From TrEMBL:
It comes from the Eukaryota. PANTHER family: FUMARYLACETOACETATE HYDROLASE DOMAIN-CONTAINING PROTEIN 2A, FUMARYLACETOACETATE HYDROLASE DOMAIN-CONTAINING PROTEIN 2A-RELATED. The keyword Metal-binding applies. Keywords: Metal-binding. It comes from Oikopleura dioica. This is Oidioi.mRNA.OKI2018_I69.chr2.g7590.t1.cds. Belongs to the FAH family. InterPro entries: FAH (IPR051121), Fumarylacetoacetase-like_C (IPR011234), Fumarylacetoacetase_C_sf (IPR036663). Residues 90-293 form the Fumarylacetoacetase-like C-terminal domain. The lineage of its organism: Eukaryota, Metazoa, Chordata, Tunicata, Appendicularia.
Amino acid sequence: MNRFFGRISTRYASGMRFCQFHDQSNGLRLGAQLADGSVADISAQYPDLKSLISAGAEGMSKVSAALGSPASGVALDSLKMAPVIHNPEKIICIGLNYSDHCTEQNLTPPKEPVVFNKFPSTLVGHGDAIQLPKIGCNTDLEAELAIIIGKEGRHISKESAFDHVFGYTIANDVSGRDWQKKRNGGQWLLGKTFDTFCPLGPVVATDVDPSNLKISSWIGDDKMQDSNTKFLIFDIPFIINWVSQICTLKPGDVILTGTPGGVGMHRNPPKFLADGDTCVIEIEGLGRLSNPVKMEE
């Protein structure tokens, strides 16, 4: 395993956690999670997460100062959550990045990362519905650790990779397997980028060591995936180094790091999402991302 894998970002190792949520008028607000788990509105400092990230260390200091005086918050579960970031320039995804996910498909682990993307229109928040496309789609879940980029970079070395990380959150790389595997000439894009196919949240944490986190998923009461980020084939410094040789990483960009084995496509019989289901993704230290499933209207 890469010796740099277990480091935490040196730029944002302050132990802060953030979320985005909607107010009663459906306006977007930025929140900071307090020590008791409640959420304080910090929109007076920065209107959204990308603005905070773009402000760099000065922004974090400003938020820390605002929270230095006695702050009160509201329960996270009482909020209408938005995706932790709603306006990334890029959502970059790594496929086939857990050995057990390769094994369940009878595939040899890749020698270099398998990279694809999702459009920002896929993003929804904790509690929002995953919509099953009217056009027809065998819809599956994928539990993933997601990186939020904090500092612009191109040709980023593995040694400095964590200096470009703002934090980590939970993603569900919802996938239309028929569109991914059998249609569109075998290109993955359409199967990965239907609207609502990337729940992201509920919080982004700057203080998580990503090297050894339990990751699990459920459809209702049926546990689907049960693994650990220590089984990633390509670790986070490798991914950041690799992708940044292709394109410039910008503050707020999202990188999904891959899913472990246990997805519905490879069950016997296959288990796909159905109207009325609830998907839950849990990652140690980051909480739970939960989304109901319904047919597109």
